[in-house]
Amino acid sequence: MANSESTSRASAPQAHEPIRLSLGPWTVLAVTLVAIGALGFFVALSQGLAARAWQAYLVNLLFWMAIAQGGVVVSVAFYLSQGRWAGPAQYRLAEMFAAFLPLGFILFWGLWAGRTEIFPWILHPIEKQAMWLNAPFMFARDGGGLLLLTLLSLWFVSASRRDVVREWTRTPNNIALPPNIMRRLSPLTALTFAFVFSLIAFDLIMSLSPQWHSTLFGAWFFATSFWSGIVAMAFTAIILQAVFQDRIVFFNRRVQHDLGKMVFAFSIFWVYLLFAQYLVIWYGDIPSETFFIVRRSMMPWVPLSIAMITFVWVIPFFVLLGVRPKRTPKILGTVALLGLIGIYLEIYVLVVPSLSPTVNPYGWVEIAVTAGFLGAFALCAFPGLKRVVAAGSEPWTPAGEME
Amino acid sequence: MAAAVSTTTAQAPTFADIDREVRRVLNPGGLQYWAWICFCLFFVLIAGALWTNQVYEGLGVTHLTQPTMWAVYITNFVFWVGIAHSGTLISAILYLFRTRWRTAVYRLAETMTVFAVLTAGLFPIIHLGRPWFFYWLAPYPNERSLQPDFRSPLVWDFFAISTYLTISSLFLFMGLIPDVANARDAAKGWRKTFYSIMSMGWRGTDRQWRHFSMAYLLLAGFATPLVLSVHSVVSWDFAMAQLPGWHSTIFAPYFVAGAIFSGVAMVLTLLIPIRKIMGLEDLITPWHLDNLAKVILLTSLIVSYSYICESFMVWYSQDAIELATFHQRYWGPQGYLFWMMVACNCVIPLLLFVPRIRISAVWLFIISLFVNVGMWLERFVIIEGSLATNTEPSQWRFYHPSVTEIFITVGSFAWFLMLFSLFARFLPIISMTELKEGIQWLREALRDNYRRAA
């Protein structure tokens, strides 16, 4: 169909040596952001703003961890579905943020210090739920789960970079299954992810309103994480193709189209899971379920709730419906960036109203903590970014061509 | 016959080989075939007679009474709607995903879809006390001055199912056009006339192919959201209520996954015998079986996840009423049904983690039967079990199906198998067009004999 176009564009990267990326100034910037974040966080603690500091910490931890882990699981999904539409580059791109996971695991333990500020059931225990909602058990199960998931993810990512695996990703036009190691690690990682991220969603988000529960909440959160991985990938790919032009595989229109389709499809999936919860709760009209939504559909939260749905579903759906927008880097990049903001808002709107029902505290504390996490995340992602650029600039065979 | 064919085609099947293999199936069938059709028809007639009796005597001949006014009939309805799901998944969603292995199996799945929806659609009507008023569901503002209640999920169902039937029939019919034209060119007698009408003047010109591809893509796009929406709406028949055991936010995706699970299992239940009887091993290879098995495994895991989440949330909330219902579900007088369901849906499919089992037709056939049983039980446990142990313990009463209900259920299977078997002899059950488009993958699957698992 679009073969002639793709081959002409595909041949371009072959003419070049793999690109080596240097990120010196950006590293300085990232370190500065980390310093700002740490400073802001500790100033807030000393100024009696501990609750806000810890809320911002939790929101950011969840957000950045969701992207990093989501990316790894996107790579898992590529292996399971034998997707090779952009060769090794698509795998490096998805695994780019994985280095944040060990840091995320360490930062998770930071929550222990702020536990009384975050979890309402610690200072006001709920007798009948105390079997599950008690701090030692919660940190043990979530910490254990995260440790397992992080180790598995790192093992998966390092296995994914082996030569034999790379070779498989370079040859899309066959029905060969991935090498054995990936066939074993991929399902294992996916299952652990589903299990651990459900736990995280129940414990770190749902339990903030302990009376409220929704069976789908865990699955919705890991769908959120999966989608945030995809938009982060799409955004990075668009930036890279703007910088390196035809020297990188993401310049290819078909690859952009495929990324756009992923953003589009899983955005619909996200809203489906949201709607499935909303409709059942609305129709059932049981106060112990509705209050969670009612609070978020009133001031001061309703603008954020609307913005979140707009950025995560309305814009991706209506803008990316056609072929051309998916193949227009500026449009796809903007949609992806807004999508990331939408996911940030989503987690903020899920967490903060449970703890601060009537006031939206967003201010310098939240901005500083977010900047700190952004810096740390970027520092973790830089080595991965170099790998993406190197893999994206090597020779590449487009998928789906007749031999 | 199959063996003789495979020596010539195994290494590199050509377009002509595909044509010959598929056309071979299109014959009037022998005595055994017609005996099978009569066998099915016999059970359909029994079911028809019992239903006539039910209409005459009233619903009292069933064991439906308070509090279990929904039981086997609604279970059958949900079961058959569920079966209908894999067809559109394979023909639409996997088409959009450019999945290579769908070509050999999608027509069969799609055919199954249409007949399963037709079977499902019977049950709400069978379940009516006055079935001749079924059209009252239609939103026709008329002399009755009655409007259906648009807030009722049952009305949503009516629209969901009829839309699904329309789209999936159109999709099946349209996909058939080039293949029927192919069959027409080789047919004689009344079949030639029949195929000529069905193929709508297809000559395979460039223009026709271009329009065909575009229309197919469009229909795939339309059908994709339907895969999710139809069974979501069916799940909301239950989840909207405040009944413990029904009211759960996970129901929609959980029912969709369950539907695909049971649907793909039914594809295997039909595909494996047909492949064997008709000698189609060269077109439907272990590669295809392997991938279907993976879909079953994935959806089985999603279903297991949902069971766990549901139970966990009941425990987490410590809601006394929910706890009581779930206690009955696990340990009550019908608890054995729940555990059978867990064995069939969660435990046995785990065998599919073994690559060797995923390419073994015998194993897959056995597992697919367990899944079919398990998914039927799942719906029964949810529907009947939750009603039987509702919020008023003084009303609790467990239900057992009557002879009428059992035979109508058996009749629905016979009806479905009869329609499907008739289709298989008269219209191409494997898409020649798409197999040819992806012939390189088929060749590859045959060349390596898909040996990696052995």
Written overview of the protein:
The complex is a heterodimer of chains A (403) and B (454). Chain A is mostly helical and 403 residues long. Chain A has one domain. In chain A, 75% of the residues lie in helices and 0% in strands. In chain A, helix 2 packs across helix 3 and helix 3 crosses helix 16. The N terminus of chain A is likely disordered. In chain B, helix 12 packs across helix 13. Chain B has a single domain, classed as Formate dehydrogenase/DMSO reductase fold, CATH 1.20.1630.10. Chain B is an all-alpha fold. Chain B is globular. The longest helix of chain B is centred in the middle third of the chain and has 34 residues. Classes of the chains: A mainly alpha (403), B mainly alpha (454). The interface between A and B is large, with 35 and 37 residues.
Oligomer: heterodimer
| Pattern of helices and strands of chain B | HHHHHHHHHHHHHHHHHH
CATH class of chain B: Mainly Alpha
- Give the beta-strand count of chain B: 0
Query: What is the radius of gyration of chain B computed over CA atoms, rounded to a whole number of angstroms?
Result: 23 Å
Structurally, the number of domains of chain A stands at 1
User: In one word, what is the shape of chain B?
Assistant: globular
> What fraction, in percent, of the residue positions of chain B are helical?
over 70%
The backbone outline of chain A, from C-alpha atoms, is globular
Class from secondary-structure proportions of chain B: mainly alpha
The strand count of chain A comes to: 0
Main structural class of chain A:
mainly alpha
Report the mean per-residue pLDDT of chain A as an integer.
Answer: 90
The number of helical elements of chain A comes to 17
**Total number of helices of chain B:** 18
The tally of structural domains of chain B comes to 1
Low-pLDDT runs of chain A: 1-14
Q: Order of helices and strands of chain A, N to C?
A: HHHHHHHHHHHHHHHHH
Query: How many strands, which pairing sense, and closed or not: the largest β-sheet of chain A?
Result: none
CATH topology of chain B: Formate dehydrogenase/DMSO reductase fold
